[in-house]
Amino acid sequence: MSDDLWGTDRLDLSAYLERIGAVEPSGPSRAALEEIYAAHLRTFTFDNIDVLLDQHPGVDLPEVQAKFAGRGRGGYCFEHGTLLGAVLDRLGFAVERRLARVGPDPTAAGRTHLVVVADPSTSSGHRLDGGERLLLDPGFGLSLWRPIPLADGAVDEVRGISHRVRRSEHGWALERGKDDGWELMHTHDEALVVPSDVALGHHYTSTHPTVHFRHRMIVTRLLEDRHVSLTNDTVTIRREGEETEHREIGPDEAMAWVEELEVPLTDDERARLRERLGTLG
């Protein structure tokens, strides 16, 4: 897809690479893609804090890069996918943005999740018809920790968590391994996605009164030794080879975890978030 459609020339690539602690690769490759993806996940949280605070700047590239590369903040899928898609475009990968339906029943959900498909063997702007296409899902909280081939039956395991890609009647299904089988996370199709689709999806997920992002804090981060999933009333810690720790917490401990996960909030944002947590059930 053309860079012009997504305006990736507006990206400050140097600022992004400096923020994630990476150097610009010599060209598109599977190794370079995995390195950028891993650094992105380690650097930025998945979170909906701006939605809870009614201050979301939007999902256009300049706003997203100012928030992520400028402030070091994280966000949710529309922001992660917008930024990472632009970065990979600029690095010479062929990139598609695709919308997914989240949950166990693809017929009961809207297309409110953004994923990225990249092909390291072709240049940006060409069709993805050569080499191995890879699925990236940087904005789902507990999802892919490295790109997985977009091929029916592809399975990958990282840090003890398995994922599988499956071709279904509704599109490409991404599943996570469970003790008793596979759990469907989301399903994406290959329909054309343009920036206005992303803006509309973001508007719904950030403003509709029934959406869970309006009523529950979610912050996740992939650390060197563990993955932490935080909500306003629970914390879940996953370490490879160890039993998952999950327990209930209160607003004060939730705020302590926000600090532990190094979410860069201003004093005003921190105060308003603490107040907001007290209103969540």
What are the segments in which pLDDT stays under 50 over at least 5 consecutive residues? 124-130
- Report the structural category: alpha+beta
Give the N-to-C terminal Cα separation.
43 Å
Share in helix: 25-40%
Give the class-level CATH name of the largest domain: Alpha Beta
CATH architecture annotation of the largest domain: 2-Layer Sandwich
Characterize the main sheet.
Answer: 8 strands, antiparallel
Summarize, please.
The chain is an alpha+beta fold and 281 residues long.
Helix and strand layout, with pairings?
Blueprint: H1 3-6, H2 13-20, H3 30-43, E1 46-47, H4 49-52, H5 61-70, H6 77-90, E2 94-102, E3 111-119, E4 134-136, E5 148-149, E6 155-158, E7 161-168, E8 171-178, E9 181-188, H7 195-207, E10 218-222, E11 227-231, E12 234-238, E13 245-248, H8 251-260, H9 267-277
Antiparallel strand pairs: 1-10, 2-3, 2-9, 3-4, 4-5, 6-7, 7-8, 8-9, 10-11, 11-12, 12-13
Helix pairs in contact: 2-5, 5-6
Overview features:
single chain; alpha+beta; Arylamine N-acetyltransferase fold; 5-stranded antiparallel β-sheet; 8-stranded antiparallel β-sheet; globular; 281 residues; 9 helices; 13 strands
